[in-house]
Fold these 3 entries.
Entry 1:
Amino acid sequence: MIIDKLLMSGYGIFVWSAFAFTMINFIFLYFVTKFKFEKEKNKFVLKYGSLNPEQSKAARGQATNREIISGTTVKSKI
Amino acid sequence: MFKIFGVNKMFSITYRFQKYVFFLFVVFLSVGLVEALLLSPPDYLQSDSVRIMYVHVPSAWVSLGIFSTIAFLSIGNFIFKNKNFSLIAKSLAPSGLVFNIIALVTGAIWGKPTWGTFWAWDARITSMLILALFYGMYILSWKIFEDKLQVTKITSIIAIIGLVNVPIIKFSVEWWTTLHQPSSVKILSDSTIHSSMILPLFLMTAAFVLFSLLIFLMKYNTELIKIKNKGLERL
């Protein structure tokens, strides 16, 4: 029965390759996008961590900045 | 008028939604795959090869939907001069292109057992290929041009010109004699698809929409952090 499902009346190679191609693209796109997101976030965290107290106070005033660094080690510095 | 599209407001929403969208995507995709590959019946004519429809059709729908959204956001950007419109459009483009490629490739794979060939210069297939070229030009323009005002104008023009191709794709199977079959799922009239195939098609479409939303959120947040990075440099 499992073999029948895999073979799909002789169309298995077409069906499985179409689904595999789709999933590979999903995984690739997800990880590339996530990698770029993390890279940019880390860059931000590094810059934020190197700010002097005055600059840090100004940066902290923005809700988006606080949101980006939430859950990172920089949070404890402010 | 467009306060909701303010960068700070949008970030607080989009940043939190990522994990929920990811969870929903996994649920819909898992159930959709079981339905599409195991539970749905084979077609009386195409047999099991019809299962390719569950990845091919949603990909084509999502890629067309995304391009139309990009084009309307570009028109909106020209009218309302809201920078966030172009940022949203830019963030939508990568998933749109990937879905377009999936639609073309899975269509070619489906074409072999159905038509006996992977490719034909058929009106529907050719117009989908043209859409992929528009996506390519749109994404490349964001990478090539550095001047912000110039790149916004160029990408908007590409999207608006490309919008002409969308109804051509939709109606190509009716306007010309094509190898590609006419639409089976219709909104305004009765669908010709069997009800047992509607559920997996709906589930897979929902999963694909959620995936494009997830990629959009990640890409959009990346773009916002880039802006914030520049803001830190100015402090």
Entry 2:
Amino acid sequence: MVPESLDSLRKVFERNPLRIDEAREAGQKVVGHYCLYSPMEMAVAAGAIPVSLCGTRHDSVSRAEEVLPRTLCPLIKSSFGFALLNSCHYLASSDLVVADTTCDGKKKMYELLGRMKEMHILQLPQNQDPETAGPYWEDQFERLRGKMRQKFQVPMTDEDLRRAIKLLNEERRALKNLYDLSKNPRPPYTGLELLEIGFKTSFLPSKKEAVEYLEALYQDGLEMIEEGRSPVAGGAMRLILTGVPLGMGSHKVLKLAEDLGAVVVVSDNCTGYKKTALFMDEEAPPLAEMAARYLKLPCAVMSPNPGRYERLRELAGEFKADGVIDLVWQGCQPFATEAYSVRDFVQKELGLPYLMLETDYSESDLAPLTLRLEAFLSR
Amino acid sequence: MFIAALDVGSVATKAILWAGREAGMVASSLVPSAWRPRAAAREALKRLRAARPDIRPGLLALTGYGRRLLGDEPTAEDDFGLGQIRSLSFNEISALARGLNLAAPELRLILDVGGQDSKALAIDENGRLLDFMLNDKCAAGAGAFIDGLCQSFDLDHQGFDALAGRGRPVPLSSMCAVFAQTELVAQIAKGVSRADLAAGIMASLAARLKAQCGRIFTQSPVALTGGLSRLPVFVDYLAKSLGVPVIVPPQAPYLAALGAALMAWEQDSPPIDRQF
């Protein structure tokens, strides 16, 4: 049985596009974001609604392929297809789109997207050296603040930023509490439910509201644990899902793994647990603190990317994982290449079974994916 | 108890009658799947019955991509001619691992080149999977690649293999089943012989498989199964490419069916029986 809080989140999400419209009519602005490196604190400090725009559905891919190379990753194609079809309410509602030069495919796509939407591009450094990349990245944030001040005619003082940091910290804390429930031997939520929750709360017009939902979900989860109720069968193989981000519509691998009897106890990706790593010092100078935290995000676009391995080690221990699935979108060179080292690390250092799955958003490879997952889970 | 096992592959459907660890396989049959898995399964079982009319299996073990099409419900008389029989279904990767372990317990590495995929498996002394890798979302590096080319050469697999044995491999770059045709046309236009082209195709397929499996194959030797294991010239090219001995185990086409039969037997027997 689904807890009441999840049910009510689902209901409010159905009406969410309408609620975004109402907020806009009342004068609020909407700022769209793609990768996790683009700081949502800025939008919040500007009094705007931050939303994530990464495409998670297959239906816009073929339209995008009329413009983009077919070999690009499905996330980029899906995102761009939404723009061409004008079929994403959140993109259409965005008064400004903030994105960063994460990977080659994305940054070239943004050039094309810039013909249709007003964009501000952050030049993301390719390594995480605090001495060289840190100040550069902070300057990028300062320029973004300048852009938003001018665009939205708001002061965006350091105090505004601090308030935004506090609010987003609350959201991170609530998310982490919820995700950490899966450390329990019988998690109260499946990995798919947690994906859905993270996805749906991220589009709500108010972060305060998102925090309330997350806290209610956490309470319901606690109650389920106390009462010994769980949607997860005892003895289910506990998986870490690492690699590329996913959302509702691009969740097939997660769903398949859980349909086959495993449970994804933690999603080590930008749409999962990685968000909780951005927790910030609320007293520090805000811009520098933000730049430092965001730069540390362990994405495969960073070279080198040592944080990914440290994190996997921590998660494997904390969540008592039995195996690691590394999800790679077809055409994602950074994650596909890094998979070699991740495999070595997981098998040799963590001593856990590892399975890399490369796929796209389509349903065409469900049978071969099932075959691989069944064999992997049967060990 | 006798167990009938069916491995419904994309190209061939394999069936065996199995009489336990000691007696092993007592009959086998292999028929083309021809995109009609149910009909192929029926035909393969019919041949088993013809070979051993005296034996009535008590359990049906299913594996291969077509196992789902055959369903989990007890199989009806008119379908498979086995009477009401219970069926158990197994993943073909695990089945192959167990089957090889039973047939050739000393081998730990398997390369299975089937119609639609190629699998590299590393197993332990009990036939349990340690690691595996499958080709990605296309048929390059699988039997379908050779299938298409056999048609272009107007040869069957054995004929194509023999032709390759008479040639010196020309370097080919494309492993895409579609683009390879284009590249071959260009080579023919340059006057390259059919034998050299066929040899080039075998060599490039072997190189592709090495690239795919190199990480799993850290020791030797490697057992080769699947349809391409029946092509001796290809086996030579593969051994050269991998740099290790390649062994085609006995009963190579039937190993997944054998593994499925073994797992069905284990699942069906109370643990105490298994000691004997």
Entry 3:
Amino acid sequence: MRSARWIVALVLVALPQFAGEFYVNLISQIFIAAIFASSLNLLVGYAGLTSLGHASYLGVSAYLSAWLYLKLGIGHWLSAPIALAVTTVMAGFFGWIALRASGLGFLMITLALSQVLWGLAYRWSAVTNGDNGLSGLTRPQPFGLSLDSASAFYYFTLIVVAVAIGMMAKFIGSPFGAALKGTRDQPRRMSALGHDVRRVRWITFVYAGFWGAVSGLLYIYYHKYIHPTSLSLTNSAEALLGVIAGGSGTLVGPIIGAAIVVLLKNYVSAYVERWNMLLGFVFVAIVLFMPDGLVPGVRRLWARVTGRRKPTDAASNS
Amino acid sequence: MTAALEVTGLSKAFGGLPAANGISLNVEAGERRLIIGPNGAGKTTLFNLITGDLRPDAGSIRLFGEEVSRLPTHRRTQHGMARTYQIITLFARDTLLHNIVLSLLGRSRTRWDAFRPLERHRELFDRARAALERVGLEPLAQRPISEVSYGDKRRVEIAMALAQEPRLLLLDEPLAGLSREERVTVKKLLDTIPRETTVVMIEHDMDTALDMAERITLLHYGTVIVEGTRSEVVADPKTREVYLGH
């Protein structure tokens, strides 16, 4: 397991040396989608709160960063922390509203809030330039290094994704993460044990919003352009699809799921107009054969193939 | 000395149907109190009101002199209250040890640590193992809950509550569904609860429960009908009426 991890790391570091620009860019996009999906997974998989409004954090931080640069001429070194801070505060406010409910109510509130932002992005042309979107943006130059080439941006994104996934893994593995999973499985029992369920969920909501905002910054740096679709329901739903298809409540699942969505989007859309339909088929197939997602499903298959020596492995991995 | 638990005029109705109808009772610190009553008498409702799972329509609840009836459940737990459930409520996918750790975290500041790996908090696991040892389940520490017997789950329920070293312990039918031998084991376990812990227990199994209780409260239709020492309650004609019927 450990050696497999090293091989993956090595391949990722060496990738721009042998892969063409198209592929390097493709993997960069997967990285961005992976942060986005993983942050959503904190809510869906670990808090047991299904959100259909996660695009809010990606979209708002991207729009803010663009707007600060275009309208106020603020450089990246300042606009990035402002965008992250404002988006995180917004997540705090949204979480405060949405966490009055759980289950379906929570889902509907997150959806409604993000639809409001999507509508704003379309209609508030003075700020967002409406359907035309905001263009004419640049990538940051950390320590004077240009990120304009595909491979430079790839390495930048690789570092961010490594830090992001690492931080989220730490969060899940901590006592707080244990309490979080407890509130997912037995919220009433957790309250009786002295855990403040609502606050645990709120902190997680804010943390998920923060990493969603980070993915938003990478998103705008990559595309150098932003359009209201970044705030759309489709964007939230694609991430949710990735989380569920890959395996919610696992660290690797959402990364695999995000990769599938990005690959389908980029490859299939070149040949088939209705690529969304194919995404739907793939999703249905995964859910039919592996109801809890690809990663847990493949793990189970693997355990069956290699003999049933460690039947409790799956349980301790959650 | 202030009472461990002081309930005054507690009422709760579900859609016009009163489940608790002006319940008042006093439990002294260190006491063992048994709450009995026929099905639907409001025993579990009373527990849910005390813990904060339900909000009362009227009345007050004092824990060690402090008014808690407006506090959320988790804040009441911080006052030293712990409970077990009639219907087993455990973390089925996790190990016995992890279940106890979650209980210990509930009363520890460590629960807000979102950075250091859980496994590094050795002291939590040591205390959790000790809590399991106390109920005789230490050898099963690494087993998931879903793989142990019903009787063991009952003991984990109790271990989770005891691990917090509560000042007030609410036991909701701790013997329900246990075999005769298991009942003896759990009974012995309950006898080891130190006097610093006040115990309020709902139980139907009179043989076991009666000799543990010092005072007994009989509930019927959401009100206290009889209260007193063991012999007083047993001798009271109203007890016979409720239990032996018409």
